[in-house]
Amino acid sequence: MAAITVRNLDDDLKAQLRIVAASHGRSMEEEARVIIRQALSRQGKRGGLGSRIHSRFAAVGGADLELPERKDNARAASFDE
User: Which positions fall inside the Antitoxin FitA-like ribbon-helix-helix domain (predicted)?
Assistant: First the structure.
């Protein structure tokens, strides 16, 4: 197994990690492994921007829009004034 060293960790952050680890009945080292594992597993599930926007607003519900029938063919945009 690989090992890492985390330098320059704030004392307050270390104290919070100790408290959270104790509340879960784990060592600080095991708690750090769990936190890293959870963060990285969420990272892979994020999806693209559209998926993330959809998931954020899914609870609000959708909107039923009535789209007008297209009668003309699509044409290229003209940027001439």
Answer: 2-40
Closest CA to 6 of 35, 26, 40: 35
Residue 45 confidence (pLDDT):
67
In tens, the pLDDT along 33-59 reads 999 998 888 766 667 888 888 888 888
Is residue 34 a contact partner of residue 45, using CB atoms and an 8 Å limit? no
Vertex 45: Cα angle to 29 and 26 (nearest 5): 20
**Exposure of 2 in the CB half-sphere (CA atoms within 13 A):** 3
User: Under 8 Å CB-to-CB from 47, ≥6 apart: which residues?
Assistant: 55
Q: What predicted TM-score, i.e. pTM, was given to this entire model?
A: 0.53
